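Expect chain and fold; see below:
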Amino acid sequence: MLPVIALIGRPNVGKSTLFNRLTRTRAALVADLPGLTRDRQYGIGRLGSRPYVVVDTGGIGTTPSGIETLMERQVQRAIDEADHLLFLVDARVGCTPEDLALAQRLRRLGKPLTLAVNKSDIGNPSILSADFHQLGLGEPWTISATQGMGVHDLIEQVLEHLPETVAGTDLSAADPERIRVAVVGRPNVGKSTLINRLLGEERLVTFDSPGTTRDSIFIPFERPGQEQRYTLIDTAGLRRRARIDDPIEKFSVIKTLQAIDQAHVVILVLDARAGIAEQDATLGSHILDSGRALIVAINKWDGLEPELRAQVRTQFERRLRFLDFAPVYRISALHGTGVGHLLDAVDLVYANANRDLSTPELNRLLESAVQEHPPPLVKGRRIKLRYAHQGGRNPPFIIIHGNQTEAVPETYQRYLINRFREGLDLFGTPLRIEFKTGQNPYEGKRNTLTPRQIAKKRRLKRLIQRRER
């Protein structure tokens, strides 16, 4: 398995920027704001002579309280998993009491550690690093994660002291055989709690406050005794655009929408106690437009009064009727009720979204649908739908050929989609249809007569003239 390198340091020293530099991605949110990163973020290092796993962590303070205590637990887990620690400090700020306390704490662990002085592009690197010798961690490496200065040499030095493979679980989230499952929903509906329940550990920070999750976190996951592997994606909660004032939250929304597009299956988490809101319908519409297989999980269902349960069912029927193709599970992420069925549903809808559709079966269903309910007339002419075949997968894509297909109304398109979905049992995935009209090869062309045809035409004209006399 790949060796693991964890990035450790105070808030706002550039850990996420270095993470993006090492992975050559923009997976981690970056802003000039302390405490932006809260959960552990994993990525495959692509800068260097060989691959490795790099872990971005939240900043460690001296007196954590509230959510910071939960963040520190995430950092401690990253330290426990790591084969090498990369301790980042800020050259612009200099050596602080927090750096001294953290260095003393890391020294006690006895793990391989490298000190990196970030933001060293502002002056002479030797002068900037001199202040950090007092940490007692050896010769500091001066780098600039933003500019890339010294980063390649630093990671090569770290890799020299790491074995190519180590014992443990492969943390690669980029495995194409993994089913990527994005968990989305409004803020504080229980997305991180649900993922922690699926994992069986406190992998993500959960706090009774909206906006706890700010970034999209990719978590490799395997079920005991099962061959299928997954990548769970925790996302930030989406609110109405008019209510978003924090610029960081605006970036979080973008990361969530990108996570939906990267996923194979989306779990839409709803809050039964808060009811079904318009924002849930907006988010469901985006998932539908992206063509992703979908599972709806109504969370916090346990202990709900019968009147409130009936109200939620009515709201779901009224506002999310267009998601009638998706399976619905009523769960409690906190207590685990109903959560065990979600991954079975993921396997089912993923298989449906990637199924190969038989052309004879598609044509049989098309013929049956047209006979039962023929297409409407257009300018006195009947629309003819001749044959169908599969055009793509995830979502299933069906191409129907015929004439005047550009005039097929939306109501008839929905009718065909429902007939195909019922006939093929495509449960849990959207279905798309495209119509194509065959071109007339003789349209706009004049029929050029041969000399023999011209002579015959003249004889016919003379014969007609004689008969008229």
